[in-house]
């Protein structure tokens, strides 16, 4: 059993939602929980602002630079592509990845600007497919009341309303929708249940797909 366990792959788990939906704190809580259960897990986030591409994205988000909507879309995608092989290695060697935003953010935020949704999806094709997408569901109005937005480019109620609409269009039956307006501990419990189920499925040999 020990030997088998080592060969089990990790799960690719993505949390999505509007800004201020609570993703980041739920992601770190999940990682601590999984580690406590003896499941090796790491917290990842996109955009990953530490890379060269990530720094360009960060400059754009903080309004330090201006970029064409298509250009920034491709940079966000490139930022996921540059992490793809490391992601695959981690999963294959048994690390579960809890990822704060992924391709769905890529499509939802750019589609909210009016870009064609098929065009937005194209550069995401071939990235690793998540084993689970958990959507933290909150209305744009409620999210905006939570301790206020920061000063970044997209943190505006009118824009977040459009993002919420694009998430609705992207959403499919495989997503687990979690009510993000519940008390934080209830959201946490719910996420723990669905994530552990998913990790178990992956350990049983569910293949990694694209
Ligand atoms: P965060 O670090 O999760 O707060 O993300 C920064 C902002 O960038 C947030 O408003 C969501 C947005 N965002 C995240 N991923 C993408 C993406 O792939 N494309 C676009 N256009 N926006 C994204
Ligand atoms: Na943000
Ligand atoms: Na966040």
Automatic annotation (TrEMBL):
Pathway(s) served: Pyrimidine metabolism; dTTP biosynthesis
This enzyme's EC code(s): 2.7.4.9
Record-annotated Thymidylate kinase-like domain positions: 15-190
Domain of life, per lineage: Eukaryota
Any single GO CC term annotated in Swiss-Prot or TrEMBL for this entry: mitochondrion
Biological process annotations from GO: dTDP biosynthetic process; dTTP biosynthetic process; dUDP biosynthetic process
ATP-binding listed as a keyword: yes
Keywords, ordered alphabetically: ATP-binding, Kinase, Nucleotide biosynthesis, Nucleotide-binding, Transferase
One term of GO molecular function: ATP binding
Extent of the signal sequence: none
Protein family: Belongs to the thymidylate kinase family.
Protein's name in the database: Thymidylate kinase
Native source organism of the sequence: Lupinus luteus
């Amino acid at each position: 059993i020990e030997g088998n366990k080592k060969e089990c792959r990790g799960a690719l788990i993505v949390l999505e939602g509007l800004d201020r939906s609570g993703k980041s704190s739920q992601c770190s809580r999940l990682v601590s929980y999984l580690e406590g259960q003896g499941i090796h897990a790491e917290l990842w986030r996109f955009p990953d602002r530490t890379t060269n591409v990530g720094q360009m994205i960060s400059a754009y988000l903080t309004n330090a630079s201006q970029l064409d909507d298509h250009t920034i879309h491709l940079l966000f995608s490139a930022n996921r592509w540059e992490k793809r092989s490391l992601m695959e290695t981690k999963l294959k060697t048994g690390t579960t990845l809890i990822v704060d935003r992924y391709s769905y953010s890529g499509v939802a935020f750019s589609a909210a600007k009016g870009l064609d949704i098929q065009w937005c999806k194209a550069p995401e094709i071939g990235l690793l497919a998540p084993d689970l997408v958990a959507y933290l569901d909150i209305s744009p109005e409620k999210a905006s009341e939570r301790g206020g937005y920061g000063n970044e480019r997209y943190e505006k109620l009118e824009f977040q309303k459009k993002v919420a609409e694009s998430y609705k269009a992207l959403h499919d039956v495989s997503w687990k929708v979690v009510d993000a307006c519940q008390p934080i501990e209830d959201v946490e419990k719910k996420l723990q249940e669905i994530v552990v189920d998913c990790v178990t499925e992956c350990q049983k040999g569910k293949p990694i797909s694209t």
